[in-house]
Design goal:
Elements: E1 5-8, H1 14-35, H2 47-52, E2 56-61, E3 67-74, E4 82-89, H3 98-110, E5 116-121, H4 125-133, E6 137-145, E7 148-155
Length: 157
């Protein structure tokens, strides 16, 4: 199977927005199981709420135009860190390098030379490993809600 292509996503397009929403819900359901916390805000996010977020979107698109995964971030002022808001892969396509493909593209093509920050559930071992493998340094853990521990990471460009 050929590697997916990385391209910007436009969530004003209904098909793209619906695919992002579907994949996000499925991926966050897996994370909720991994970390033992089902209160992840994105799990309760409607399609309209998702579209209203001030995020930029990048997708990994496979053969036939099917979305395999996506990365979203908040645009930052020059000199300010970029915050990755979410990195999700369709659970049917886990462990095929899609998250690495998206992250590598973003770090080299979009955020070269910039500080990038991200958080994930501290018990989400696959995500923790992914970020560490791509040069992120783990910072302080924090607990935004009872029963939830988050890990923070940063990477200098």
């Amino acid at each position: 199977m050929p590697s997916p292509l990385v391209r910007p996503l436009d969530l004003t397009d209904d098909r793209a927005a619906e695919a992002v929403h579907r994949i996000g819900l499925a991926a966050y359901a897996v994370e909720a199981e991994l970390i033992g916390f089902d209160g992840i805000p994105a799990l309760g996010e409607s399609l309209a709420e998702l579209r209203a977020r001030p995020l930029r979107w990048l997708g990994a698109v496979g053969a036939g135009g099917a979305l395999a995964g996506f990365l979203a971030w908040e645009e930052a002022a020059p000199g300010e860190p970029v915050h990755l808001d979410r990195l999700c892969v369709d659970p049917a396509r886990f462990r095929r390098g899609i998250a690495s493909l998206l992250l590598r593209h973003a770090l080299t093509e979009l955020f070269a030379g910039r500080v990038v920050e991200v958080t994930t559930g501290a018990a989400n071992a696959p995500a923790v490993t992914l970020y560490e493998r791509h040069g992120f340094v783990r910072g302080a853990d924090f607990s935004p809600a009872p029963g939830l521990t988050m890990a923070s990471f940063h990477r200098h460009g």
